[in-house]
Amino acid sequence: MRQDSGVDGDAQRLSQLCWMFFLKIIDDQDQQLEVMQDNYRSPIPEQYQWRTWAADPEGLTGEALLTFINTDLFPALKELTATGSHASRARVVKGVFEDAYNYMKSGQLMRQVINKISSVDFNDLAERKHFGDIYEQLLNDLQSAGNAGEYYTPRAVTAFMVDRIDPKPGEILFDPSCGTGGFLTCAIRHMRERYVKKVEDEAALQSGLRAVEKKQLPHMLCVTNMLLHGIEDPSFVRHDNTLARPYISYGQSDRVDIILTNPPFGGREEDGIESNFPAHFRTKETADLFLALFIRLLKNGGRAAIVLPDGSLFGEGVKTRLKEALLEECNLHTIVRLPNSVFKPYASIGTNLLFFEKGEPTQDIWFYEHQVPAGQKAYSMTRPIKVDHLQGCVDWWGGAGRENRQETEQAWKISLDEIKARNYNLDCKNPHTIAADHGDPQELLLQLEAAEARAAALRDQLKAILAEALQR
Questions:
Q1: Residue 268 gets which letter from DSSP?
Q2: Into how many domains does the chain fold?
Q3: Are 287 and 312 in contact (CB under 8 A)?
Q4: Which of 100, 194, 314, 365 has the smallest set of CB atoms within 10 Å of its CB?
Q5: Are 259 and 346 found together in one domain?
Q6: Predicted TM-score of the model (pTM)
Q7: What 3-state class would DSSP assign to 289?
Q8: How many Cβ atoms sit within 10 Å of the Cβ of residue 244?
């Protein structure tokens, strides 16, 4: 693909590959469903199915292939009608192609790419798993694809958050800013490894997934990711802006059991979005609006694990009101503080993992400070955070009730009264690493004043010497 003059940069290459992967994966799934279900019919018309136009390695190529893709395939799939028993699958296809583009200009090079993709059998579990690892690496590589990196959360972090939340089939799990689907795929793997024993369990798992993604490229990547992970109907991944819907319109039917997400932070919403929220929560800062929404969306007894920057912990104004609401309506039981380098190279700010449950007010907050492993100054692209780096926190965490937690060099507890006295500032530093006592403050002040007086005397001497020199 790098030889093709029409494709510029990794983000475009991945976007180009993605619609091809999508058509191949959904065609393999369709063929399997045709065998397993009576009267199943693909939502894609026969002439546009991968098996018809792409599978033959000696088939369409050159200008004929480009013409077919640009003038037939794309227009047909962009206008696909969603009718019948598999309308939701048709909507998925249409949604993926609504904003997709064919960037390649060489039909010969495109045929070579198509033939490579055709060689993968996505109905073969071993091949699909191997390809899934490759796809995961492609998503990881988005870090170096300009601003596309914002869609990526380190997999060690998502795996840790999912493990601590422990989702189960039948629970409604929501990621309102899902990116490429990292939290969803981690949750799917977690449930399949631990709880899926019967066909009914898998059906309950798939029916409980909910997700929204605002941007076209990560939405397409996420839908393809879901197909790759054996999700039959990924129409639950909506291409939309969660914040564009009025806050008050979210009712009981919209409540969820679990929220797992890394909401965009550092960004600001376009004019008018904040008016969807109550006056005391209005702000243009994306992460703050999402936090307000999370509190509303959780069912009583629901639980959440979210990523937030340091600024959300110590900020004032709307941020203070949000934290007050969070602590009143939810039990914010744990904050895991991460070093600045976890999200490098595209973000070097302190981040935190907040774990809370809806329905009971907060009494105490446990803090755990995750530290870069010994012998390593910081995390980086070549030395990223790994799952085993977080094992210390897992060992400390304790059981479901968290009664056995102990203060350590990395863990400490703050009461609600202390938080209120701090005006809801949650940016609590590790008391075990605060600098040692350097003496009596009054004595230190006297020493400082004496030092300043000596400095002033020396300054006067230098001025006198300079004046004398100028007179000569």
A1: B
A2: 2
A3: yes
A4: 194
A5: yes
A6: 0.84
A7: helix
A8: 13
Question: pLDDT-based confidence at 267, cuts 50/70/90?
Answer: low
Q: Which of 210, 225, 220 has the alpha carbon at shortest distance from 95?
A: 220
Is 113 a member of any domain? yes
Which residues lie below 8 Å from residue 112, measured CB to CB, with a gap of 6+?
Answer: none
DSSP state of 242: G
What's the DSSP call for residue 435?
P
- The region, left, alpha or beta by phi > 0 then psi within -120 to 50, assigned to residue 181 is left
Asked whether residue 278 is assigned to any structural domain, the reply reads yes
CATH number of the domain bearing residue 113:
1.20.1260.30
- Domain end, chosen from 74, 97, 123, is at 123
Phi-psi sector, 23: left (phi>0), alpha (psi -120 to 50), beta? alpha
Residue 176: closest CA among 164, 184, 168: 184
The side-by-side arrangement of strands in the sheet containing 298-309 is 237-239, 209-213, 173-175, 256-261, 298-309, 351-358, 330-338, 364-369, 411-415
Residues 151 and 55 in one domain: no
Do 167 and 219 fall into the same domain?
A: yes
Is the pLDDT score of 319 beyond 70? yes
* Alpha helix positions (H), 79-154: 87-98, 107-118, 125-141
CATH number, position 366: 3.40.50.150
According to DSSP, the β-strands at 298-309 and 330-338 are unpaired
430 is a domain residue: no
Does 404 share its domain with 371?
A: yes
Residue 268 lies in domain: 139-421
Residues 335 and 241 in one domain: yes
363-385 per-position pLDDT tens digit? 999 999 999 998 888 888 788 89
Same structural domain, 400 and 270 = yes
For residue 399, being part of any structural domain is answered with: yes
Quick one: DSSP state of residue 72? I
Looking at residue 166, its pLDDT comes to: 97
Phi, psi of 76 (to 5 degrees): -65, -45
Q: Among candidates 85, 74, 103, 86, which has minimal Cα distance to 5?
A: 103
Q: What is the largest CA-CA distance in the chain?
A: 109
Check if the beta carbon of residue 260 is closer than 8 Å to that of residue 175.
yes
Domain-ending residue, one of 61, 96, 123: 123
Alpha-carbon torsion, ordered 89, 90, 92, 98, to 10 deg: 170
Neighbouring residues of 339: CB distance < 8 A, sequence distance ≥ 6: 350, 370, 371, 372, 378, 379
